[in-house]
């Protein structure tokens, strides 16, 4: 995948550069909350500013209806936050391809930035509508995609516009693609993949792909109960997907045949309700009480998983081990996060919305090698699916 061109070394001085960023940030009362995504785009934006480009930023925010302006989805707060973070003039255009956007893009000076209004106020964005792509392209001389988080969508701003302008990858997108495809194509071994989260059905492509690549697969989270069922165990009222038991069994067999170690929990923290204050017991994985649900991995499993993680030279983690949002059931996820962080010899790569949230919650983010900013996009890349936003840059 090293064949996507970044903007590094491209002559951008005096050029209008249309950059797709992911400024899909939480906003409350007109103020940006977590600004991680804006900060993640700063290397690309600063590079362009420092090299004298006229920078036109576009993004979506939330899920507007696509029928025009909706105050709660305006990008104005994101533009204001960017202005605080970057040492360059930032103006905001009150439309996306309308009069204000065209005027502000045309009148930009070198090293200055305009942020366009939410792309998804126009339903043609998600439809990758050719006329909309053309309008976007007409604003600029060059196109840069730095929105890895939406690279799995073939929208006007992520795919269609790339065919109309000389196109490059921003540093965030290029870093994501390099790291994740490097991990899949040539991992340092042993390669340990930890998979959790809620459902097998959500992650089947990822698990399947990783059985082909990894040396050890560790399974936790809600999905582990479908695997335990495939092993003939009773799982009480735990989250289970009856329709996926057979498929889970096939994956266990596939791993065995390939000589891949597939680890399942040996003990479970089970509760009598899906609640913080539920009564809970720790039991072996083959004796979950009939009327209880597993909400976390148990201490023996934590130990087993931690020692497998310690052996890895590459460690990839997606999906929490339990219902980590509740303090009563966060222990397994925390133990795994700590084990990953403690393996300082390994390349440690975290992908997925909730796994990243867990790592942040336990304040271990700075101890990981790489934290992916793209939930869905990183999962599709790991599954081996081509990402339209990346393919469009080739
Ligand atoms: P990611 O966003 O990292 O890819 P997922 O979205 O697949 O992860 O799964 C995260 C969710 O899985 C969390 O909300 C967590 O509470 C839930 N989960 C984990 N373990 C269990 C369990 N044993 N039972 C029910 N839900 C679980
Ligand atoms: Mg999630």
From TrEMBL:
Where is substrate bound in this sequence?
22-24, 37, 60-63, 120, 153
The gene designation is pgk
* Record-listed E.C. numbers: 2.7.2.3
The main enzyme category here is: transferase
A biological process (GO) of this protein is:
gluconeogenesis
Q: Which reaction does it catalyse?
A: (2R)-3-phosphoglycerate + ATP = (2R)-3-phospho-glyceroyl phosphate + ADP
- Which residues does (2R)-3-phosphoglycerate bind? 37, 120, 153
Q: Which organism is it from?
A: Slackia piriformis YIT 12062
Query: Where would you find this protein in the cell?
Result: Cytoplasm
Name the UniProt record assigns to this protein: Phosphoglycerate kinase
Annotated residues that bind ATP are located at 203, 294, 325, 352-355
| SUPFAM superfamilies associated with the record | Phosphoglycerate kinase (SSF53748)
